[in-house]
């Protein structure tokens, strides 16, 4: 059996409902999109009590099936004003799955700041959060473990979220208890704050719900074996982690450098901001470069970065942070980025949005590019809700507009991820058309050299990447297993049969992904978005990007075949 839990925060009431196992097979991002459409969330102010906040997991959550315990957070975004699904790894989805929860919905607004606690027996408690308010995430996490024991997982709101900052995400605990796995994008933390929920604590039951244990175990074993045999998984993600993408993009010419002015920071042999330099340095210092963020994960693309004394700085340091909070701000010292990353985790904010916002201050001339002390000071200022902090916490689009800047790298008010759309074109097309805002995770094709490809093949590559991403997100699967998962969809169906006892059709994967995209685009249409909102900022079309000298080629009027697919026409 699977269940859903709806919490009326104003009345402090909990409503459990059984979820048919056939429906539980359509979880994660699909569930958030479907519920937001059913609740007509496009009609409500994102920070109003009427806007629901949904936490949904995939059908394999709670098991040790590798990389299958991600949590999708869905709402109407106060940053983009469209639909938003932000997902993260860690232990929260694992704990929800072990309670048999398919999804959790927060409704209304609590009368006071609250910690929601779910016990392994299925009891729900609404508890005061006063002792946690104003704290950074690391200290707040310590207090949660002290109050509720070590066998918990949590979703936690940082101090920037408390005062409604649109940089704020929701931090999930990792396997070591760090508040470091963020559902970061779109201001989902501000929505949690509008409901006056500081944290959700879930006791880990320790018993996955499985219909056919032998079948589930066999599918788990086969999938893990395929991951261990896959070169991309083991030689890239496992060995180096996502920071290896910085090396690739720097060489490829698609790295964001100084507010997207250049696509390469340094010659590849002199580049110090990627995995080829950082991984051996971190290992020599005693850090970990193969680390799992969630139970059972074989990929283990996370890391624990330490300083020259062997003391932990942050876990994890990932490519998007290196790109936006690092090279995009002119930094070339990975230790500095790691320290800024830790600050961002403690604040509970999106490093992509934060990095793009800080780069605008440098663009305005408030400090020289690469001024680490200035960047650190600006992040530290976000702890206290001063006028300056509230201004910066509103994100790239709003800060850029207030500063009167023209070079503001956003789509649908959300900062563009660390793939310059002039060079990484298929990903750029995804970031243009996705209902999610400028989000590479909606369908990434970062290694695709497109200039010699026919336009229709580029659009097809973007669409296929979007379908696969939506399916993975709906299954609670990390996309870093995609080189195996996307080619072994029958194995995924077998695993779901073992866990839920539900037979799924052969076209399940594609149908699931395509339906997610249709729901999301329908939501944004009803929220008032048009294709004109998909246009890149003008400077991408006007300024050739060194070293390749490319300008952006794609405009909304060029994307009619893709729109037809996305809208289900």
Write down how many β-strands occur, each being a DSSP E stretch of 2 or more residues.
17
Report the CATH topology name of the domain at 2-203: Aldehyde Ferredoxin Oxidoreductase,  A, domain 1
Q: Can you summarize the main beta sheet?
A: 6 strands, mixed
Overall geometry comes to: globular
Number of helices: 23
Class of the domain at 2-203 in CATH?
Alpha Beta
Quote the average pLDDT: 97
Poorly predicted runs of 5 or more residues: none
CATH architecture of the domain at 2-203: 4-Layer Sandwich
C-alpha end-to-end distance: 36 Å
Strand content: 5-15%
- Helix % is 25-40%
Keywords: 4Fe-4S, Iron, Iron-sulfur, Metal-binding, Oxidoreductase
Pfam families: AFOR_C, AFOR_N
Family: Belongs to the AOR/FOR family.
Cofactor: [4Fe-4S] cluster; tungstopterin
């Amino acid at each position: 059996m699977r269940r859903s839990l709806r919490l009326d925060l104003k009345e402090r009431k909990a409503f459990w409902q059984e979820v048919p196992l056939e429906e539980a097979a359509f979880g994660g991002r699909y569930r958030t999109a479907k519920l937001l459409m059913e609740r007509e969330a496009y009609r409500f102010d994102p920070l109003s009590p009427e806007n629901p906040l949904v936490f949904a997991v995939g059908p394999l959550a709670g098991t040790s099936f590798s990389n299958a315990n991600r949590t999708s957070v869905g709402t109407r975004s106060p940053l983009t004003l469209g639909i938003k699904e932000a997902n993260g790894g860690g232990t929260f989805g694992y704990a929800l799955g072990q309670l048999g929860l398919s999804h959790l919905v927060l409704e209304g607004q609590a009368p006071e700041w609250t910690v929601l606690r779910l016990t392994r027996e299925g009891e729900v408690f609404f508890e005061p959060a006063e002792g946690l308010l104003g704290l950074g995430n690391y200290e707040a996490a310590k207090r949660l473990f002290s109050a509720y024991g070590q066998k918990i997982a949590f979703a936690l709101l940082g101090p920037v979220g408390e005062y409604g900052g649109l940089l704020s995400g929701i931090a999930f605990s990792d396997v070591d208890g760090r508040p470091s796995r963020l559902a970061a994008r779109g201001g989902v933390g501000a929505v949690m704050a509008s409901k006056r929920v500081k944290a959700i604590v879930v006791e880990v039951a320790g018993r996955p719900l499985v219909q056919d244990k032998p079948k589930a175990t066999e599918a788990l074993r086969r999938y893990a074996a395929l991951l261990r045999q896959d070169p991309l998984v083991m030689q890239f993600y496992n060995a180096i982690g996502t920071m290896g993408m910085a090396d690739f993009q720097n060489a490829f010419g698609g790295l964001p450098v100084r507010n997207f002015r250049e696509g390469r920071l340094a010659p590849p042999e002199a580049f110090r901001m990627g995995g080829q330099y950082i991984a051996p340095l971190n290992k020599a210092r005693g850090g970990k470069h193969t680390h799992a963020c969630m139970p059972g994960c074989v990929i283990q693309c996370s890391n624990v970065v330490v300083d020259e004394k062997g003391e932990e700085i942050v876990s994890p340091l990932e490519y998007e942070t290196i790109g936006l909070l690092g090279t995009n701000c002119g930094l070339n010292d990975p230790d500095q980025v790691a320290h800024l990353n830790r600050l961002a985790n403690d604040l509970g904010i999106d490093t992509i949005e934060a990095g793009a916002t800080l780069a605008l201050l440098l663009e305005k001339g408030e400090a020289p590019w690469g001024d680490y002390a200035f960047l650190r000071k600006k992040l530290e200022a976000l702890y206290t809700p001063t006028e300056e902090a509230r201004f910066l916490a509103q994100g790239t689009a709003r800060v850029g507009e207030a500063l009167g800047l023209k070079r503001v790298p956003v789509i649908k008010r959300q900062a563009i991820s660390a793939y310059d759309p002039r060079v990484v074109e298929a990903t750029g097309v995804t970031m243009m058309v996705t209902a999610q805002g400028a989000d590479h995770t909606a369908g990434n094709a970062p290694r695709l050299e497109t200039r010699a490809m026919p336009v229709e093949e580029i659009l097809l590559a973007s669409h296929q990447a979007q379908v696969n991403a939506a399916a993975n997100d709906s299954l609670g699967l990390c996309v870093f297993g995609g080189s195996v998962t996307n080619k072994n969809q029958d194995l995924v169906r077998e695993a779901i049969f073992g866990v839920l006892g539900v037979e799924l059709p052969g076209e399940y994967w594609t149908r699931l992904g395509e339906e997610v995209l249709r729901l999301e685009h329908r939501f944004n249409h009803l929220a008032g978005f048009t294709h004109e909102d998909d246009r890149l900022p003008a400077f991408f079309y006007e300024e050739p990007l060194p070293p390749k000298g490319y300008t952006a080629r794609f405009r909304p009027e060029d994307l009619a075949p893709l729109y037809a697919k996305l809208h289900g026409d």
